[in-house]
Specification:
10 strands, alpha/beta, 3 domains, two-stranded antiparallel ribbon, GmrSD_C, GmrSD_N
């Protein structure tokens, strides 16, 4: 290993190929967080040198790790970019955008200086892929190659990948360079162009860590990213997985294309977990590890625990493990996307995913992954029963607003305790396990406790709307027969966000007068309870909101005429001889 401080001129001057491996995360730097600060530093140094042409001001960009790769005689020796590809890519965009501006404005010699740092000389290029000195091999390849090969002046709007971060970054730097250079009035323009080129090529500095082919690049990568990193657990795991595959002699490109599922918008989405946001891919990998290990694993431990699992517990090479992860990730994505389909006829598993998402809890996912491990072939009826019990345990605690902070530990222990349980005993054993929990932080509330609490709880004020809505939807599904083997209706209630309506309205004074203050206080205590709440369609909600109950234009008449929910028909039935607040 060799560590040296180098300038862009020193890094890129020779013909070469710096390859961003498939397992590196895509380009993510953006204008606000990285491009603007970098340009401000470049501009500051250029202006210092304009004021004092002998100034030697420099700016440190950070570290990059490069590793030599084997190559055939007579070809470029490629070096993998193990760490720092965001910096190197941005630097290449800056240099190429500046060269394009300079060439368009007649500064051919300066443009050529920069072009020699981004493009290999034509007489060294044997195939088209060898033109650019920095080569992307993941999904960024097309957009990077397109903007870096575009002839100046560049028509950014006409680029096929004009909306990519790479094209936008190139355009950003081009615009800034144009503005800073000003008009073409000599000699000031020529001086500014010369100074800017010098700053970009000679005043920026990076620590370059060069590794030999046989050195352990994964160790270096982990050490550099151990603290203060913006890398996700999924990023670190991705690097580890493909390094491992390379050691196993697997075709890394084929494995990436066929078996790595996480480079998509679905998996990159940020998900709220408690006080933190994590990428969905990182969350899945954490939950998958819990399902496999039967241990509670904090988000910060995900990568180190994954590495330990692969090296000590998995019992299979990475080439066999990755397709298993892919298969379970596909199930996970299907459950999630189906749960978001407002009119889909959901399975019991998908319904639980929907309900737990509505109350912002991810606790059930490790159990779902465990029940669906490839090769186990668990009976769907057993799965549904286990899901029903564990969902009840979690949601009843949510109804009573009990803490959920210790439930992750119980989920992990439940998996570990029942991993070897025979399938025909599994559901009963898990129900018994949950019923025996007796700590305040983990117990499974019973019917009497839930009923007693809901009779007096000001539910409308206490619960978030999404949480309250799934309770009312479940009540409607219950009336439609979805707690038994034969539903009584054609489908569950659509999960389209129906408004929650007060039967006795919040503004009750006009149509619901009371005799005295004591009665007013008593009524106020009933208004927001669960028994005074229902679901209505949006159009019906607006027409009955604060209206009276009885009469031709009242709520009861309109519910009879227009509403199809069984819970509202039940209300109509029990109020046929008068309506009270009982």
């Amino acid at each position: 290993m060799e560590t040296v401080v180098r300038t862009p001129l020193e890094i890129f001057s020779l013909p070469q190929h710096l390859v961003v491996p498939l397992f590196q995360r895509p380009y993510v730097w953006n204008e606000e967080d990285q491009w603007v600060p970098l340009w401000q530093d470049v501009r500051r140094m250029a202006e210092l040198r304009l004021d004092n042409l002998t100034s030697m001001a420099t700016h440190f960009l950070g570290a990059v790790v490069l590793q030599a790769q084997d190559n055939q005689t007579g070809t470029f020796q490629p070096r993998f970019v193990i760490d720092g590809q965001q910096r190197l890519t941005t630097l290449q965009l800056l240099m190429d955008a500046t060269a394009a501006v300079l060439e368009a404005r007649g500064q051919d010699n300066l443009a050529r200086r920069l072009e020699e740092l981004t493009h290999n000389p034509a007489h060294y290029v044997q195939v088209d892929d060898e033109m650019l000195k920095l080569r992307h091999t993941n999904r960024d390849r097309a957009s990077y190659d397109e903007v870096m090969r575009a002839d100046p002046p560049i028509d950014y709007a006409g680029l096929k990948h004009a909306d990519s971060l790479l094209a936008r970054g190139h355009r950003f730097f081009g615009v800034q360079v144009e503005r800073w250079l000003g008009d073409d009035s000599p000699p000031e323009f020529a001086t500014r162009a010369e100074v800017l080129t010098t700053v970009i090529t000679r005043a920026l500095q990076l620590v370059v860590i060069d590794l030999r082919a046989e050195e352990n690049s994964q160790e270096i990568f982990e050490t550099l990213n151990a603290r203060g990193t913006a890398l996700t657990a999924a990023d670190l795991i991705k690097n580890f997985v493909f390094q491992r595959l390379a050691v196993e002699g697997v075709d890394v490109r084929q494995a990436y294309v066929e078996d790595w599922p996480f480079d998509s918008t679905f998996w990159e989405k940020e998900i709220s977990v408690g006080r933190y946001f994590v990428s969905r891919s990182s969350l899945f990998l954490n939950q998958w590890l819990v399902s496999r290990s039967g241990e509670e694993i904090s988000p910060k431990q995900t990568f180190t625990r994954f590495k330990h699992f692969v090296e000590h517990d998995a019992g299979v090479p990475m080439a066999e493990l990755l397709p298993i992860i892919k298969q379970q990730a596909a199930s996970y994505q299907r459950w999630t996307e189906r749960a978001a389909d407002t009119h889909a006829d959901l399975s019991r598993v998908e319904l639980s995913v929907y309900r737990l998402q509505a109350i912002d809890l991810e606790l059930l996912k490790p159990i779902l992954l465990w029940l669906h491990e490839p090769g186990t072939k668990c009976d769907p009826k057993v799965i549904d029963r286990v899901v029903g019990a564990t969902e009840s345990w979690i949601i009843r605690r949510a109804l009573l607003r009990l803490t959920t902070s210790d439930l992750g530990r119980i989920v992990a222990d439940l998996i570990n305790t029942h991993r070897a349980t025979p399938q025909d005993e599994l559901a009963t054993r898990i129900e018994t396990y949950l019923s025996r929990l007796d700590a305040a932080s983990t117990y499974w509330p019973g019917d009497v406790e839930v009923e007693k609490a809901l009779k007096v709880e000001a539910a409308y004020k206490r619960y978030k709307r999404g949480r309250l809505r799934i309770f009312l939807e479940a009540a409607e599904d219950h009336l439609r027969g979805y707690t038994g083997p034969t539903p009584l209706a054609g489908g569950r209630i659509a999960r389209v966000g129906y408004p929650i309506e007060h039967l006795m309205p919040q503004k009750w004074e006009t149509h619901w007068p009371v005799a005295d203050l004591a009665a007013e206080i008593e009524r106020g205590e009933h208004i927001h309870r669960l028994g005074n709440l229902t679901l209505l369609t949006r159009s019906l909600n607006s027409s009955v909101s604060n209206g009276p109950w009885a009469g031709s234009g009242g709520k009861r008449a309109k519910l009879r005429e227009h509403d199809v929910f069984l819970m509202n028909r039940r209300i109509d039935d029990i109020s046929s001889e008068g309506w009270t607040r009982r």
